[in-house]
């Protein structure tokens, strides 16, 4: 009788995130995930009902890792700039995870307000109001202009269209911030 496979949801999700980081979200399927875990597909479906349920947990884990990455880099004294730099750096260091979160059908944002209402983005906007004296509307406007630039840079980096070092990421974000701040 074969030994039973003791496998947890956490182990499945961890392996899936590693697989996605290597090969991308679109490459995720039960067979490749099982291969990564060195099991058959049966244990996956003993724990999860279907692949969509697994993907929901994987997405939550990738978002948690993104949140942790951003938390470790945002400086409340310069929240908007450090948030945008961290966003671009995440795209650089975790290209496939970035693509999975922000350049796929997983993205929940459908409008500009969805972007503005995201937890980190609201924090940066409030920071501009409380620490730098912007009105709420002007803070939202400044945020959106800088974030759109950062998003373009992050997209180009994550899709291997450009290669840029960390110093240049900071330089470019700060330069755009200073230009926008003067308006």
What's the short story on this structure?
This protein is an all-alpha fold.
Can you describe what's shown?
By secondary structure, the protein is an all-alpha fold. It folds into 2 domains: 1-62, Homeodomain-like (Arc Repressor Mutant, subunit A, Orthogonal Bundle), CATH 1.10.10.60; 74-183, no CATH class. Helix content is 73%, strand content 0%. It has 10 helices and no strands. It has helices spanning 9-23, 30-37, 42-47, 51-73, 79-93, 95-102, 112-116, 119-132, 136-158, 166-181. Helix 1 (9-23) packs across helix 2. The longest helix has 23 residues, at 51-73. The radius of gyration is 19 Å and the shape is elongated.
Number of strands: 0
- N-to-C order of helices and strands: HHHHHHHHHH
**Averaged pLDDT, please?**
92
Anisotropy-based shape: elongated
Give a short account of the largest sheet.
none
The tally of domains stands at: 2
Classify the helix fraction into a percent range.
over 70%
Report the span from N to C terminus. Answer: 73 Å
What structural class should be given to the helix and strand makeup?
mainly alpha
Low-confidence stretches: none
Radius of gyration: 19 Å
* Continuous helix count: 10
Strand content: under 5%
């Amino acid at each position: 009788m074969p030994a039973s496979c003791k496998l947890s949801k956490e182990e499945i999700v961890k392996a899936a995130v590693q697989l996605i980081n290597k090969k991308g979200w679109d490459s995720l399927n039960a067979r490749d995930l099982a291969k990564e875990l060195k099991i058959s597909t049966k244990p996956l479906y003993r724990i999860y009902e279907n692949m969509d349920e697994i993907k929901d947990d994987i997405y939550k884990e990738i978002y948690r890792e993104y949140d942790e990455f951003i938390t470790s880099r945002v400086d409340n004294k310069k929240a908007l700039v450090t948030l945008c730099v961290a966003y671009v750096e995440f795209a650089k260091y975790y290209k496939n995870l970035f693509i999975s979160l922000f350049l796929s059908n997983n993205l929940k944002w459908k409008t500009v307000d969805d972007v503005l209402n995201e937890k980190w983005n609201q924090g940066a906007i409030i920071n501009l109001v409380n620490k730098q004296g912007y009105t709420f509307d002007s803070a939202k406007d400044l945020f959106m202009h800088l974030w759109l630039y950062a998003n373009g840079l992050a997209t180009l980096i994550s899709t291997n269209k450009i290669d840029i070092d960390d110093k240049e990421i900071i330089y470019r974000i700060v330069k755009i911030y200073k230009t926008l701040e003067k308006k």
